[in-house]
Design brief:
With 113 residues, the chain is an all-alpha fold. It has three helices and no strands.
């Protein structure tokens, strides 16, 4: 066991470990931000695909094709799940926008029904 250099002050190794840990946390934060931005960029195409699926669901429902309707509903649910996942990732950055968060929560509840 190494002895500390002064009473309760940390050793050089401990200080270096803390500095290294802080740098790793910063690096991780930058990686998470980059991943979030990539996911957010993909969000537009996912939303457009979801909108198209709503039109297909409407047409299939009007045709009374229940098997196809369930298949389309499952695909639509996958799109919504992806949007929700990205929204959860983005939440720390949009935390100040409570209206958006409430809309996301209502969307999640609405897709479960």
């Amino acid at each position: 066991m190494q002895e500390q250099t002064e009473g309760s002050s940390p050793t050089h190794e401990m200080e270096q470990a803390v500095v290294t840990l802080l740098q790793a946390v910063r690096d991780l934060r930058h990686q998470l931000q980059a991943t979030t931005m990539a996911q957010a960029a993909d969000l537009t195409s996912v939303i457009n695909a979801g909108r198209d699926m709503v039109n297909v669901i409407r047409n299939v429902a009007l045709a009374s094709d229940t098997d196809r309707l369930m298949e389309c509903a499952d695909k639509f649910h996958e799109h919504i799940e992806h949007i929700l996942e990205v929204s959860y990732i983005l939440y720390p950055w949009v935390n100040s926008c409570n209206t958006l968060w409430y809309a996301i929560c209502h969307l999640k509840v609405g897709t479960r029904l």
